[in-house]
Amino acid sequence: MWSVLTQAHGALRSVVAEVGDDQWALRTPCEKWNVAQVVRHASGDQLGYAAAITGVGGPTEDPFAPSEGRPEPSSVGAALDAAAAAFATIEPGTPEVPSPLPIGPLSAESVVSAAALDAAVHAWDVAVALGRPSPLTPELAEQLMPIAEVMAGPLRAFAFGPAIEGEPGDDAAARLLRFLGRRPDWPPAGLGTLGS
């Protein structure tokens, strides 16, 4: 029913499956977080959406202070499954759906898009940290830009960096990433581990 969420969840699920045992401590575009922390954060966010809708569950740690250790192998899939199941109970067109966002309830389409934005951008974070191709397609980015424009202002102080000026030749994915304070040309995994 919610194709944008299915695409974003698929991107996150597939890129996390590619993380090697020796890659969890690699740096990511999230300046202070390694791959493990980004994955833990992304999983916690999806659990937060599920809990906001269902009233049960939720992340077991603060998604904005994720621990550095490797997450349990099944945790990402479980979080994505919980979010997808929660959103499956929401009818399109529902005017107010609870969300974990500080901007309060939003329309069904907006909350679904917000959860998809979170998953898709963090899938990109992990992919580029591993030196893999981006799973954030221009087509998916075009679908996510409207909710990014709604969310970025209120969340800019703690969830997103300052917007970065675009460059000639930017596609929709690059425009979205820059809008959220990320550099589309972020260096790959050769940066090493945090603290090294």
From TrEMBL:
Pfam families named in the record: MDMPI_N
SUPFAM superfamilies xrefs: DinB/YfiT-like putative metalloenzymes
Gene3D superfamilies for this protein: dinb family like domain (1.20.120.450)
Q: Which InterPro entries match?
A: CHP03086, DinB/YfiT-like, Maleyloyr_isom, MDMPI_metal-binding
Q: Which positions are tagged coiled coil?
A: none
Task: List each copy of the Mycothiol-dependent maleylpyruvate isomerase metal-binding domain by range.
Answer: 5-127
GO MF entries: metal ion binding
Question: In its UniProt entry, what is this protein called?
Answer: TIGR03086 family protein
The scientific name of the source species is: Cryptosporangium phraense
